[in-house]
Amino acid sequence: MSELLVNSEKGHISASQRIPAIARPFVSERAAATLDRVEKFVEEECIPADEVFMRQIGETTQQRFSSHPSVLEDLKSKAQELGLWNMFLPKNHFKEGAGFSNLEYGLMAEYLGKSRVASEATNCAAPDTGNMEVIAKYGSEQQKRRWLDPLLQGKIRSAFLMTEPQVASSDATNIEMTITKDGDEYVLNGQKWWSSGIGDPRCEIYIVLGKTDPKNSNKYAQQSVILVPHTAAGITIHRMLSVMGFDDAPHGHGHVSFNNVRVPASNMVLGEGRGFEIIQGRLGPGRIHHAMRSIGAAEKALEWMLARLNDERKKPFGKLLSEHGIMLERVARSRIEIDAARLAVLNAAIKIDESDAKGALKEIAEVKVLVPHVNLTVIDRAIQAYGGGGVSQDTPLAQMYALGRTMRIVDGPDEVHILQLGRNENKRGKAHKSRIEAQKKKGADLCRQYGVGTADVLSLERKSGEKSKL
Ligand SMILES: Cc1cc2nc3c(=O)[nH]c(=O)nc-3n(C[C@H](O)[C@H](O)[C@H](O)COP(=O)(O)OP(=O)(O)OC[C@H]3O[C@@H](n4cnc5c(N)ncnc54)[C@H](O)[C@@H]3O)c2cc1C
Fold first, then answer.
1. Which pLDDT score, from 0 to 100, does residue 285 have?
2. Selection from 411, 420, 339, 129 nearest residue 347 by Cα
3. Which is nearest to 255 in space by CA: 177, 335, 195, 324?
4. Is residue 400 in a domain?
5. Is 47 among the domain residues?
6. CA 243, CA 94: separation in Å to the nearest integer?
7. Beta strands 185-196; 253-264: pairing state
8. Are residues 253 and 304 in the same domain?
9. Which residues are in the Acyl-CoA dehydrogenase/oxidase C-terminal domain (predicted)?
10. Which domain CATH number covers 79?
11. Which of 78, 109, 125 is the last residue of a domain?
C-alpha cells in the first residue's frame, strides 16, 4: 500500500469503489480501471509535482510567461504511457478522444481538479478542451489537420478570445471586435481581455469571436468565430491580469489588442454569422468539466481540513480541533454538500450523454451555479481551521479559493444562469396554477359527495364578547 494513496483508516478505497451508486450502471469496466489509474497518477505523481512546477516557472513576469516547466513534459509522457490522454472528448460525439462518456470523464476530472498540473499532464486542461471540441465539432478538415491534431497531441496550446474590456461581455451580443472581409482574407480590429492561456509560449492558436455583420437586424447573426495563428502580424499582448493576486503563470490571462490582423478567409469556422451557435455549443460539457474539477478541489480542501483537525501539535484550549464540536459540524456539512453537488454534476453528465449539451441546459446551469458555491464554502471552512496558515502560502487553500472564486464569473456570471433558470421555471407557473385550482375544485366536489361539507375546519365565527359555544 503506497502511503501517497492512503485515504481512510482501512487503507486505500479506490476511486472506482467510491463511484456513487446512482452512476455505477453507466460506468464501463474500462472506465472504472482508468479512473483508478487517474487517481493513482494524480495522488502519487501530480500533486507532489505541483511544487516543482511552481518553482520551475521562475520569478520575473518575463520569465514566468516564457517558461515551460520540464516536470510537466515528464508527466505528459507518463500519462500517455498509462493511457491517460484526451479523456475529455466524449465518445458519442467525437471519434478523436479516448472513448469515454461525459459521465466517465466527469468522474476522472474530479481527481484532475486536485492538482495544479494534472489536467494539462493528461491533455485535459481548459481552455484547450473546449477549443478542441470547437474545432472537432465545427472545423473544416483543413482546420482540423492544421490545429486539432497538434492540440490533441499536446504539442501546442490554444486560447479562446471573446471577452472585451470596454463592454459587458456576459452578453455576447455586445462584442465589438470587427472581422471584415477583404479579398480572400479577413481583417480583425479590436481588444480582448481575460484571454486565458495566451501567456503560454506554446499557445499557438486563438479562437476569436467578433462581428462580421454588426448591422444585421438579428443580433444573434452578427457574430463569427475565426482562427487566428499567434504569429499573425498586428497582435499585441499588453499585459497579464492577476486573479486575486495570482498570475496563473505560465498560461495566465492576457489583455490583447488586434490592429489590422489579417488571416486567410479559410480560417473562418463554420461560416459567417454562426458565432453564437459555436460559443453556445462550446460551453456545455466544458461547464461540467469545471464543476467536476471543483468537486475535486472541495474534496482536497476537506482532506486538508481533516489533517489540521487531527494535528496533535496544535491544540487550541487543550483539545484537538476535531474535539471541538463546531469543527465536526463543519466537516459533516462539507461531506453532505460535496456529495450532493457531485450527484448533481453526474446527473448533468448523464443527461448530456443521453442527448447533448442543448438537451441538458437546465442541469448544466444548475451545477454551474451550485458547485462553485459548495467549493468556496468548503475551502473557506478549511482556511478557517488553519487560522493564519490558511490564508498564507503554506497551504494550497488560498490559491484554490482564488481559482474557485472565478468559477462564479467565468463562462457567464451566476446571475445569467440563475435568471435563465428562474425564467424557465416560471414558465410552468400557469400550468401549476390551473392544476392546483382543478385539484381544489375536485376536493370540494368529493367533500360534498362524502357529506363532510366544505366549510373551513378551523371556522369559529365568534363575535365580539361572545363566549365559547360549547
Ligand atoms: C479567471 C478568468 C478566466 C477567464 N477566461 C476567459 C477566456 O479564456 N476567454 C474569454 O473570452 N473570457 C474569459 N473570462 C471572462 C469571463 O467569461 C467574463 O468575465 C464573464 O463572462 C463576465 O463578463 P464581464 O467580465 O464583461 O462582466 P459584465 O458582463 O460586465 O458583468 C458584470 C457583472 O454584472 C452582473 N450581471 C451580468 N449579467 C447580469 C444579469 N443578466 N442580471 C443581473 N446581473 C448581471 C454580474 O454580477 C456580473 O459579474 C475569464 C474570466 C476570469 C475571471
1. 77
2. 339
3. 195
4. yes
5. yes
6. 33
7. antiparallel
8. no
9. 273-424
10. 1.10.540.10
11. 125
Whether residue 151 is contained in a domain is answered as: no
Residues 212 and 256 in one domain: yes
Question: Are 285 and 133 a contacting pair, CB within 8 Å?
Answer: yes
Give, for 343, the enclosing helix (H) or strand (E).
helix 325-354
Q: Which domain holds residue 176?
A: 157-273
Three-state DSSP state, 20: coil
Q: Do residues 224 and 305 share a domain?
A: no
**Tally of domains within the chain:** 3
- Is the peptide bond prior to 250 cis by the omega test (within 30 degrees of 0)? yes
pLDDT score of 441: 96
| The C-alpha cell that represents 107 in the structure block | 468522474
The grid coordinates listed for 222 are: 452578427
pLDDT > 70? residue 1: no
In a domain, 84, yes or no: yes
Instruction: Return the half-sphere exposure (C-beta side, CA atoms, 13 A cut-off) of residue 162.
Output: 23
Domain boundary among 360, 384, 412: 412
For residues 42 and 103, state if they share a domain: yes
Report the CATH number that the domain containing residue 203 is assigned in CATH: 2.40.110.10
**From 47-51, 153-157, 405-409, 457-461, the region with the lowest mean pLDDT:** 457-461
The span from the CA of 85 to the CA of 424, in Å, is: 38
Residues with beta carbon inside 6 Å of ligand 1?
127, 160-163, 168-170, 194-196, 243, 253, 406, 409-413, 415-416, 419
Residue 324, domain CATH: 1.20.140.10
Are 224 and 298 members of one domain? no
Q: How far apart are CA 102 and CA 145, in angstroms?
A: 24
d(CA 160, ligand 1 centre) in Å = 14
The angle at the Cα of 60, spanning 58 to 65, to the nearest 5 degrees, equals 70
Q: How many Cβ atoms sit within 10 Å of the Cβ of residue 326?
A: 8
CA angle in degrees (0–180, nearest 5) for 382-385-391: 70
Q: Which atom of ligand 1 is nearest to the CA of 403?
A: 1
Average predicted confidence (pLDDT) for the chain: 95
Residue 312 and residue 390 in one domain = yes
d(CA 311, CA 379): 18
Paired with 182 in beta bridges are 185
Q: Express as a percent the part of the chain with pLDDT over 90.
A: 87
Q: Identify whether residues 248 and 287 lie together within a single domain.
A: no
> What's the gap in Å between 277 CA and the centre of ligand 1?
19
Q: Which three cell numbers stand for residue 370?
A: 451550485
Pair 134, 269: CB distance under 8 Å: yes
Q: How far is the CA of 166 from the centre of ligand 1 (A)?
A: 12
If we measure between CA atoms, which residue out of 214, 90, 210, 207 comes closest to residue 138? 207
3-class SS of residue 205: strand
Q: Please give the distance, rounded to the nearest whole angstrom, from the Cα atom of residue 413 to the centre of ligand 1.
A: 5
| Same-domain status, 249 and 324 | no
Identify the residue whose C-alpha is closest to ligand 1 atom 8. Answer: 196
